[in-house]
TrEMBL record, chain A:
<dbReference type="InterPro" id="IPR050431">
    <property type="entry name" value="Adaptor_comp_med_subunit"/>
</dbReference>
<feature type="domain" description="MHD">
    <location>
        <begin position="168"/>
        <end position="431"/>
    </location>
</feature>
<protein>
    <submittedName>
        <fullName>MHD domain-containing protein</fullName>
    </submittedName>
</protein>
<dbReference type="GO" id="GO:0006897">
    <property type="term" value="P:endocytosis"/>
</dbReference>
<dbReference type="Pfam" id="PF01217">
    <property type="entry name" value="Clat_adaptor_s"/>
</dbReference>
<dbReference type="InterPro" id="IPR018240">
    <property type="entry name" value="Clathrin_mu_CS"/>
</dbReference>
<keyword id="KW-0653">Protein transport</keyword>
<dbReference type="InterPro" id="IPR036168">
    <property type="entry name" value="AP2_Mu_C_sf"/>
</dbReference>
<keyword id="KW-0813">Transport</keyword>
Automatic annotation (TrEMBL), chain B:
<dbReference type="InterPro" id="IPR013037">
    <property type="entry name" value="Clathrin_b-adaptin_app_Ig-like"/>
</dbReference>
<keyword id="KW-0653">Protein transport</keyword>
<dbReference type="InterPro" id="IPR008152">
    <property type="entry name" value="Clathrin_a/b/g-adaptin_app_Ig"/>
</dbReference>
<feature type="region of interest" description="Disordered">
    <location>
        <begin position="678"/>
        <end position="732"/>
    </location>
</feature>
<dbReference type="InterPro" id="IPR016342">
    <property type="entry name" value="AP_complex_bsu_1_2_4"/>
</dbReference>
<feature type="compositionally biased region" description="Low complexity">
    <location>
        <begin position="701"/>
        <end position="711"/>
    </location>
</feature>
<feature type="domain" description="Beta-adaptin appendage C-terminal subdomain">
    <location>
        <begin position="872"/>
        <end position="980"/>
    </location>
</feature>
<dbReference type="GO" id="GO:0030276">
    <property type="term" value="F:clathrin binding"/>
</dbReference>
<dbReference type="InterPro" id="IPR011989">
    <property type="entry name" value="ARM-like"/>
</dbReference>
Amino acid sequence: MIGGLFVYNHKGEVLISRVYRDDIGRNAVDAFRVNVIHARQQVRSPVNMIARTSFFHVKRSNIWLCAVSKKNLNAALVFQFLYKMLEVMGSYFGKINEENIKNNFVLIYELLDELLDYGYPQNTDTGVLKTFITQQGVKSQTKEETTKITNQVTGQIAWRREGIKYRRNELFLDVVESVNLLMSPQGQVLSAHVSGRVLMKSYLSGMPECKFGINDKVIVESRRAADSSSAAGATKSGHIAIDDCQFHQCVKLSKFDTEHAISFIPPDGEFELMRYRNTKDISLPFRVIPLVREIGRTKMEVKVVVKSNFKAVTKVEVRIPTPLNTSGVQVICMKGKARYKASDNAIVWKIKRMGGMKEWQLSAEIDLLNATDKAKKWTRPPISMNFEVPFAASGFKVRYLKVFESKLNYSDHDVIKWVRYIGKSGLYETRC
Amino acid sequence: KMQGVAASVSDTLGNIRPWLHKVTTQSKMTDSKYFTTTRKGEIFELKAELNSDRKDKRKEAVKKVIASMTVGKDVSTLFPDVVNCMQADNLELKKLVYLYLMNYAKTQPDKAIMAVNTFVRDCEDPNPLIRALAVRTIGCIRVDEITAYLCDPLRKCLKDEDPYVRKTAAVCVAKLHDIDPLLVEEQGFLDMLKDLLADSNPMVVANAVAAMTEIGESAQTEAAARMLTWSGHLVNKLLTALNECTEWGQVFILDAVANYTPSEENEAQSMIERVCPRLAHANAAVVLSAVKVIMKLLELLTPGSDFVQSTVKKLSAPLVTLLSSEHEIQYVALRNINLIVQKRPEILKHELKVFFVKYNDPIYVKLEKLDILIRLTSAANIANVLAELKEYATEVDVDFVRKAVRAIGRCAIKVESAAERCVSTLLDLIQTKVNYVVQEAIVVIKDIFRKYPNKYESVIGTLCENLDTLDEPEARASMIWIIGEYAERIDNADELLESFLDGFADEQTSVQLQLLTAVVKLFLKRPTDTQELVQRVLSLATQEADNPDLRDRGYIYWRLLSTDPAAAKQVVLAEKPLISEETDLLEPSLLGELVCHIGSLASVYHRPPSAFVDGRVAAQRKGLPSRAPTLAEATGAADAGAEVVPTDNAQNAKPAVSVIPTQDSLIGDLLDIDMSGGGGGSGITQQSAAPAVPSQSNAMDLLGDGLDSLLGLGGPAPQQPPQQQPAVGGGSGVDALADIFGGLSATPSAQAGFTPQLESWLPAQRGKGMQIDGRFLRRGAQLQMELQVRNNAMQQLSGFAIQFNKNSFGLAPAQPLSLNPLAPMQTATTLLPLHTKGQVQKMEPLLNLQVAVKNNIDVFYFSCLVPIHVLFTEEGGMDKRVFLSTWKDIPADSESQTSLGSYSHSPDSVSNLLQSCNVFTIARRSVDGIEMLYQSMKLCNGILVLAELKISGGAFTLSLKSRHAEVYSGVQESYLKILKSSN
C-alpha cells in the first residue's frame, strides 16, 4: 500500500512529508523533486518509477501531491485517494495552495494520521472526520461522546451521524449535466455524450430512508413489472436509456442490481448522489458551422455560424482559435460581442441572449505575420462553446424522491423538495 | 557540539529562507509561522520551550519541531524533551509527539525505550481514540526492544470493546509482521486476526482483510501461509460484508477475493453475480477491482454461455464511464482497458468512439487512447478510425503525431480492404512536408510493402522525392530497403544508393547494413552496370567499417558473390516471410498474469510485479485459473491431439539438416556468431584484431584469412580441465589410441539408460570431403556434443574449430574443439562439453542449432536439432503437492495430448528409463489396469514441463502441461525416441 505521502510547492520544496512504510527512505522526497518537478523534460505520465520506487502524482494549481510506494499496490485506489484527500483538505480550509497548507500543517498531519493507516485508506468522509478532527482539538469528551464518534467512524453508516434535527425538513436536488460533443467540420457528430450528476443537499432529521425514482427505461420498466399499480402514471415516451450510472457510497448497490431501486440513507448536507452517462438521443443545444480559408501565407478568413436548436438561452460564449502568429483580427458579427484575445490566441464571441431556433454568424479576417519558423505549424484547435441551459440535454427526469423516517414524526409530505435541471457545456467542440 | 549541529542545520536551510521570510511578514498569526524558525541557537530555545511549565508554550514548541522536521531539518537532538511532552492529556499534542517519535525512534533506539511505558499506559486509556492512537503509533516504531513490549497491549486491543481500536489493531498486526514475522506467527496473532474477519463491524473486517492479504504474501512458515489462504466459506462471508464497507474496504475485500479460485463453475457464477453490483460504484478503484475479480472468474465458466455473454456485456459500460473521471484515473483505466481488449476484445468492440482523442486530453491519455483505438480497428469501423488518425497526424505533439502516422500503417496491415486508403492518406501526409511526419510515414510504408508486395510500388516515386529530408536512421534505412527491394523498377536506383554511399561512414550501423544489402540486391538484379558500386560498398563494409556485424555481412556477401552468384541470388533475394497483423500484443501468459493484477501498478506498467517489486512477494506469480474440462471436451481434446501428431513419427524425428541461410534476415543472425572460439573472454581481442585483416582483392582468401586469425585467437584456449574427456583422435580402428578411447566412449552408452543414435549432420559432398555425424549426450549433469568427423577428402584436414549460432537455450561450447589433424579416410570422434550460458535467441524450430565448423579448407555450416531431453536438468523433481498445484495453475487449454504408440515397457522400466534422462516420476496411479505416471522435468533455462503418461494395455498416451507450449513438440519427440530406443 501507500508507503508515503508528500506535498510540494511549485519549486519542489516540501510542505508535508509523511512516511508510512519503512521501505520508503528520506531520499524518496528528493528523488521526486529532482526527477519530476525539476525534470528538464516534462514528465509524460502521472505514474513514474524512479529507482524501483513508484511515484503517483496529481497537481492542483501550484501544489504537487505525491504518493510513493515500493509495492505492487492498487493504482486506481491511490489516485482515487489523492483526489479524496484534496477534497477533504478543501472542505477543511478551502483552496489548496501553499499558504493554506502551511497554515494548516498540523491539521494536515492529524488528518493524514486518520485518512491512512500503514498506507491503507481508512475513513475519508469529511462529515465524519469533522466530528473528531477539528482545528480546535477535541477536549474533555465524555465516554458516551467518544464511543459515539468511534462507532460513527467505523460504522455501517459511516457517512451520517445519529441525532440530527431540523425544524424544517428540506431537500434540494440539482441535476447537472455536461454536454460533450465532438463534431467534424462537415457537421458530422463524431462523438457526443452527456455526463450527468445528481447533487443532493439534504437537511433531514434522524436517519431517513430515501427512495429515488428517475425516468430510466430499465428502472421504470422493471419497477412496472414488479408493481403494476405504479405504472398508471408513467407514459412510455418519456423514458431515456442511460448507458451507465454510478452511485454514492450510501446507495445500496445490491438492491439496485436486483430490484433497480435507488434507496439510501443520505449524508447530512451536500453530496453527489449519482453520476450517469448517456449517449443516445441527446438534444444538442447548439451547432457550429465553421469555414476557414487560408489566403496565402499572411491572411486567413474565418466564418462561423452558430445555430440554437432549442429554447432561448442566455450567456453563450464561442471561442474561435487563431494561429500563434496572428498580428491582427477584424471581426464582424450580427449579434453579441466578439473580441480578439491575443493572450488566449482566440476570438471570443459572447452572446448575451440567444433566441430559440436562431442562427447567427460571425466572420473575421485574420492577418498573419509571415511565419519564419515553418516547422512550428498551427494545428487548428477546435472551436469550443460555453453555455448553460435550463434543461437536461439527455432528457433525464426525476420522477420522485420519497423520504421515510419511521422513528420521527414527519412524513414524506412534510419534506420540502426542490428540483433543478442545469445543462452545461462540457467539451463542446467543433473541428475546423 | 550542539552549537555546531544547529549552525549546520541553519546553513542547509538557507535555501528555504526566502519563503519562510515571506510568510513571516504576514500579520495573521497562523501555523505557518512555525516554518520560520531558522535562526542560530533555535534548538536551544526550543529545548527550553519544550520544558516550559506552561502547556500552551510546550504545544507551540512541539509544532515548531514538527515543522522543522517536515522541511528536512534534523531535530533529533530534542528527542528526550519531546518525549517529555508525551504524557500530556491533550490529544492534538499527543499526536504531534507521536509523529515525532515515529520519525526518530529508529535512529535513537535507546532513548525510544523511554516512551514505552507511556505507550503501554495509553493502550489502556479510557478514551478509545487514545488507545487507538497508541496502538497505531507503537506499530510504526521499528525498534526491536519496543517490539517485545508491544505484544501484550496489541493482544488486548485486538479484543477491545471499541471497533475503532480493533480496526487499528488489525492493521497493527500487519505492521508487526513486517518487523518480526516469526513473532507474529508464534504469538498466535494470525488466529486473532482471522477471528476479526467475523467481527460485527465492517471496518474491522475490511482492515483485517487488508492485513491478512499483506501478511499472506510474505508469510514465513508453511502453517501461516496455509492459515491465510482464502476458503470458499470465508470468501462467501466477505462478499456479504461488501455491502456495508467503506469504498476502501470494498477494494481490500475485492482484491483479496481475487486471490481465491472457486472449484466449481456454479460457485464462480454466483460470485460474479454478487460482485457485479460493484460495477456501479462511484469509486474507480472499486470498479476496477470488481472487473478484475469478474475477468478472473470468467475463465472458469463455459465459454460462449449465455451467462458469460451477459456478464461481458455488463463490463463494457462501467469501463467506458471510467473515461469521464479525472485524467490520472483515466490513465490507469486506459492502461487496464488495453489489457482487457487483448484478453476479451468483445467487451469494448462497439465502444470505439469513446477512445477518440480530445484536443485537451493530456498527452499520456492521448497516447493510450490511440493504442486502444488501433486494437479495436476492424473492417467495419476503419473509415472512422482513419479519419481520426488523419486528424491526429496534424497535431503538435511529436510523439503523438508519430504514433498516429504509425497507426495508419498498422491499419493498412490489419485491414486489407483499407490498405489502399491508408496508403493514400500516408501520401497526403508526406505532401505536408513536415519532416518527422514524412520520415514516420516512410517507415510504415516499408511495412506495408512487406505485407502487400508488388502492390503499391507506384508510390515509390513520391517517396524518392523526399530522400534528402530524411535524417533519422530508421527512415533512411527504410527508404534504402525500399530502393533495394524494388531496384529493378527504379531507374536511377544506382544513383540514389550511390548518393547514400558518399556518407557511408557517418551512417548508423542499421543504415549501413541496409545499404550494403540494398546494393547487393541491386547488383543481383542489374549486374551489368552496378559492378563498381557493389565493389565499393563491399570494400567500405569490409575494410573501413569497425562494426563487426557490418564487416562480417560484407565478407559473406563478397564470398557468396564471388563463389556462387546463383546461390547469392537465392539467399539475398529470397522470398520474405509475411509480417503479422497484430503488433505489440502481450505474450499470453504475461497477459494472463497482468489480468490478475487489474487496477494495480503492474497493470499500469504492463510488467509483472517481479519486474519492479523486491522480495518474496514478487516471486509469487499469479495466473488466470483454468477451467476443469468436461468429459466431452477432454475426449475431444484427445482426438484433436491425436490428429495433430503425424503418423510417421520417425520421419518427423529425423533431424532436418539444411543449409542455414535461406533467408535474408537469417544472415544477420548468422553473422552475430561470436567468433571468439568459445575459449571465453577473448571477445575484446577479437575486436581489436579485426582491423589487422589484410586487404586483398581475392574475396575468398580474405575471408579465409580473416577467419583463421579470428579463430586462431580463440584457439590457444585456457588449460583444459583434466576431468573432461579430451579429443578422441586417431584413425578408424587401426590406431591404437582409437581403440583405447573407442572403448572409453562406448562405456557410457552401456551404463546410461538411453543413448541416441548418431545422426548425419554434414554429408561429405557438402563438407568438401569432411563428413560429420554426431549426437547430443548428457552425462553426469554435463551436456556434451559427440562429433564423429571423417575425412573423405584427398588431403589432410586440420585446424578444426567450431562455433554455434545464438540459439533458443543459449547452448555454446564450453571449450574449443580439439581434433588432431585428420589424414584422408580417417575418422575421429570427440566429445565437446557444452554449457548453456551463451547468447539466447529463439529459433524456429525451437531446438534448432546452427553450427559452423572450420577446417583448413573452408568454413561449413550445418544445422541440427538438439533432442530436448539433454536439456533436462537433474533438479527436475518436485514435491507431489507442488506438482498438483502447478498442474492446476496452468490453464487447461495449454495442455497437449498425444498418443505415443504401443510399447512393451512396464511402468517401472519406463519410469527408470525416463529417470535416466532426468524425467522424474512424481506419482503413480493405477486405475482399472490403466497406469498413470505423473512426471516432471525442468529445462536448463528453468522452464518446467509436467507430464501425465497413460499406459493402457501397452498403448502410451502423453499429456503435457507447461507455461511454454513451444517445448511440447520437442518433449514429445524425446519421449518417442526414448521409448523406441530400448523396445
